[in-house]
Amino acid sequence: MRIGIISHLKHPIAEPFAGGLETHTFQLARMLRQRGHDVTLFATVRSDPDLGLEAICSETAIAEVGLSEASDIAFFREHHAYLSLMNSLRTRDFDIIQNNSLHYLPVSMADALPMPMVTTLHTPPFCWLESGVRLSDTTNHALVGVSHSIARQWAHVRGLDAVIANGIDLNKFAFRPFADADPYLVWYGRIVPEKGLHLAMDAARHVGLPLRIAGPAHDEAYFRAEIQPRLGVHARYEGHMAHADLANVIGGARAFLCSPMWDEPYGLVVAEALACGVPVAAFARGAIPEIVDSRSGVLATPGDSGSLALATLTAMQLDRRACRARAIAICDAEKMIDGYEAIYAHMIRRMRAQTVPTAREPYPVQSMDTQTPAMIRG
Asked: Residue 184 CB: number of other CB atoms within 10 A?
């Protein structure tokens, strides 16, 4: 297939990744190319050129802005990039377009394309994207959710055509049968308020083990106010690490702490920890209960650092081999690519048949084995 992938434009699709969406887009483009598909990635200029990059915009993120709304200059730069791209796609010969942008223009203009489009929803509904989805009323545009949690959150807007769980490269997160001799816990991800790192730091202190921290500090004010004062002998910030170095830090930990303050759409960090054989202690939010089961993780009461500490103590007793087995069962990127190839073929066949169904033809929803682990309450 000839596949065009529309990326979001806040950060480059390249290592070290800014977050899960960048990781997912990279993985999707790379593995589709490995399977012999002709892939073009529409992304920012500093994205990985080996992904078939066709740069459409310089980065729209402005470092000083943090989590507040971007300036009008950034907004219109992004708007213009997507508008130009969607207009140009009308004359391109792709078999299918994969939309990972989170922007309203690609979804609202899907019906203007001569080829089908698949949009993957990586976030709960927000006003701009929701308005674009509501305007998209064509059988040639499929919506995919990365979890059943996301599917439920979008149900009032539109039913999704499929759920395809995100996947990771299991080879990049090698199994470690034993933790390091000097015990420690690990937390990694974007350092922003909604990830709740400060609560994980408090929980680790309750447990009595040092916490090693990795990830980009995207919110400097939050880092200065909540994270820096907690650093010291109980917690160490390792910086923003490439996957190879990160996997080594993760694999040596006794447990991975996951402390989201919002409903995580998926949680690639959880999958990566499990792949390394590291048990998970996490707040029961969003899709996390879909990823961990009772043999690989322990859920805690959201927002309660004491509950997270108790969950950590229990998680450290779990079998690391069971954690790796869980990752192989539901987090393998090869299975994710199987799912996307299937829905692409489905959409292409339907368009080529030139039939207009009287009702939306459902695509089989991918299921996840969700043996829910016990919740620890403080």
From this structure: 18
* 355, 367, 133, 93 alpha-carbon torsion, rounded to 10°: -50
pLDDT of residue 128 exceeding 50, the answer is: yes
Name residue 39's beta-bridge partners. 3
Helix (H) or strand (E) segment spanning residue 42: strand 38-44
27 is written with which tokens? 């993985």
CA distance 258 to 288: 9
Encoding tokens for residue 125? 């509904």
- How large a percentage of the chain has pLDDT more than 70? 89
376 forms beta bridges with 300
Task: Assign 362 to helix, strand or coil.
Answer: coil
SS3 173: coil
pLDDT digits (tens, 9 = 90+) for 166-180: 999 999 999 999 999
What helix, strand, coil percent values describe the chain, rounded to 5?
40, 15, 45
Nearest to 312 by CA among 222, 207, 219: 207
Q: Can you read off the two tokens belonging to residue 201? A: 């730091």
Beta bridge partners of 120: 144
